[in-house]
Records
---
Amino acid sequence: MKVLILGGGGNIGFWVEKLLIENNDYVYSIQRGTQKIKRTHSKNPKNFFIIREDINELSETSKELVNNCDVIIDFVCFSAVNARERIRLLSDFPGLLIMISTVAVYDRSLGTNILSSVSSCKNVKWAYAKNKLEAEEALLDGLKPGRVVICRLGHTFDIVLPVPFGVGDWTFVKWLLDGNPLMLFRGMDSRWSLFHSRDVARRILLVAANAENFTSVLNIANPQSVSWLEIGKAIYSTLDIPEKFRYISVDALRNLYPYWSESVIFHKQFDEVYVGDEIKKFSQLGEDDWDLAAGLRISLNFYLRNKPFQTVNQFYYDKFLLLAANSQIGAQLKRQMQNGEFD
């Protein structure tokens, strides 16, 4: 199978490429640039090719390649404008287009949200999600049935770790290894459905190989959910260091770092559970790859074994220090301890 990947420079794209390479498929990845430090595929595989071009300004050779591929996986279709460009590009393409979208296109409210691929998308407030939804609609209208599948991805993690707020790179790991507490937001310990990028990639490729068994719009999301406290405990267990938690209020977080608190208030306050027939169809992959601890082992072992990626963003590390040592928060924590609220 020949697979063309558009914008595969992220974590999920890396795993899609890796799994295809290991399956001896031919993989072509169109990318405009690269990060300063980026994971690369070992052993220089002979069935993997990077094309340094802008998807919107492809050479004639690349346009010919497009029409000779079996599947295109598009990570960078962000708007209706992008979608219309894809439709023009794929006018002679006989294969399958998989557009990577987001579950953020669903309406959500406080409390528990039971979401499926037929849930309402009429009241989406986030501009990014609105644009993704418009891109979905344009592709579904502009391409023949059976030629496009929209994969709405749930929350994933990889070398960007699941954190309540702040940054999820080695800075966060170093903070914990230095004996500092994992800070959680008090009163908003929502339950999240998340899983590792490798397991997302496995499902995308299952769709690519068996598109006829899936609907044109489907969720690739974990039906299981975990609290932020459970996520924290799993991280400590994987690092094999003593647990240390500190609870802060969202108000305290907002007063000190508004940009972090908005992340909490905007989308980490929702409980999410995903249901639907597409979830059942992925069961053939086994339940073990949904496991939070298994995914964390992959991510944390990667950091622990790869020193070039062990870089600390001192700006954010200092922000964590200030947050933990803030006198207003310290007084609040003292009261929580006196009231038996502190774990």
---
Amino acid sequence: MSKVIKFPIPRRHGWEEVLEPLVKRITGAQQADVRGGCNYDCELFFMKPHVLGSCVCSYGKALFQFKKDHPHSVQCFHTFWKEIDDAFKAHPKYHETNILKAARINMVRQLCLKNGIKYNPKTVDELCTCTVQKEWDALGLKHDEDCYKMLPNFWFKKTDLKIWWYKFFFRDAYANQEIEREDFREIVAECMNWVNSNQR
């Protein structure tokens, strides 16, 4: 898969408000339900929500097998992180309260601080202080060209504009082209017209 030149999109400038009406029109959902995006594919544009977890292309399958065959050392950052993560998520009330989630994050932050690592919730599960991650990276494997997880969250096929985000649209977002919000507004308006003309 070719490397993408990333053009960051500043979330504070309200890009999500431009996209919300289109997602609501497609899904019929209320505002509180649309921030993750939706699955939609037509000749004009493509959209998908952020995908959590490993992919199922050849890369994901190879990674799954590699992890089974190459456990992290007992003193590795990843081992301590997984113990914390598993313990909290095994608690029966974990998904019912933000207190436990905040406590888990705080413990992981402290673990990062102890190891001189900058905390990043998107990559903390990949951090490794033993040799396993280096061994995996040395293999140089890439995702398949059609890997669903690696596809953009929004793709305007007419101009090949592709936008990726993290969990909720325009959170830590970037595009493969420079794009201004007013230009994006016109793109979304064109997508809305297509949906209105073709979705009954």
---
Amino acid sequence: MLLDGRLHFPSPEVFENYMFGLKEYEVIGEDSFLSLASVIGDFQSENLRLSEDQYSKTSDFRDTPLLSMLDKDGMLVIDDYIISLDFENQVAGVTKDKILIPLLRAKDFSHTGIKVYTFEEELLNILFGNEGISKYLNNEMGVDTGDNMRILECPGTPRPGLNLPYRPTPAAGVTNPREDRVTSFSLDTPPIGGYIYRINAKHAYQAAALYFRLKSELEHYRRTDDPTSIFSPDQDPFMSISYWGDFTTARRSKVFLDFCWEDCEGCWPQPANRQKVQKVHWEAGRRLTQVNLYGIYRGRRGGSHAGTNALPYEFRLVPIIRS
């Protein structure tokens, strides 16, 4: 239900089912709900109470369902727990005391009646234990094994272990670097046909206490050969991601990854062209306890717009290794 401008869920199961589209629980007044997602597009909005840094740090979650469930102050209620997410400091404040709501709204978690958890901690398990795991997880919808998951058959795709360059290059002597959630790479190319092209590649394990996602992503952009111009999404029909590795949750067996991804999944905003290829490996309210994620990124600089001048690229990212 909607109460005091916030979504109230009676249990973690209902919350998680609702977050991933199994909306068996009717939210009365949902049409009048002002979510964080609805106001974050306008940083100058009087309804947006985020600092500039906090606003910037929500960007990794703008294509997730989480921001649509938080109110304009980044809050919601599950059972009797009032929860406030602070994206700037990557922590969650939790209390049952309604008197402390103004502090939660202001991201002041210093009161002894507010418990503080990092974004890396699995809040649903901490607050509710192993009970109330959603149908989303019980049905194993967190791992897509449908027809769109193609076994690694991309033409020319090297198998793991071959000599492809890492981008960015790890520091000298570091063969297995460990990153906090995200390893990314951006490549600006020399001008082709009057345009500068940019390729962004990313592995990401994103954590926000109530929401966890593991994904691989490749984006293609271009701008005119003018330093004052800005990069805009641009078509590259040759993009693909090959990935391999495995991940584990506390209550599930290990999942092994070995596929090729050529279509857009869960891209936000929905592109009018192929400027983005994204594969979401895991998305749930439950965290991963171990991750080994590797990937090969391939495409052509300039895509179809560069024609015969399009230069192929192929590289790996520093893998995410977490245990």
---
Amino acid sequence: MDAYALEKPAKVPRVIIDKSLSEIYSSFPSQFPFHSPTMEKGDDDCLYLRYLPFQLFPPYVPSWSDYLIRARQHIHAGLAHPEGSVRSKYAFAKTEFNFSVNFYRKFLDPAVEELA
């Protein structure tokens, strides 16, 4: 029920982390999985899990770079959606995608490019 209440006011789809847990995450001794860049504080002051965490991809895709290329195609198509509220969600996904590409550039295939 708390998760539903946390995500109800969100304008973009994402996994929101309860603020009461933020102290636990900030004191976790490791960089992964719960520190930046896996977890981020949004413009609305909500902590959330990033869309494309490092090396997390489904088993049907051969590599993380291949997964990002697929994600890029999907986001690019979504940005052309005629409904503004849908486009704004894809604009957020574009920002998340570009962050991952820039932050992890040295680990990616050169074919993975930012979305313009």
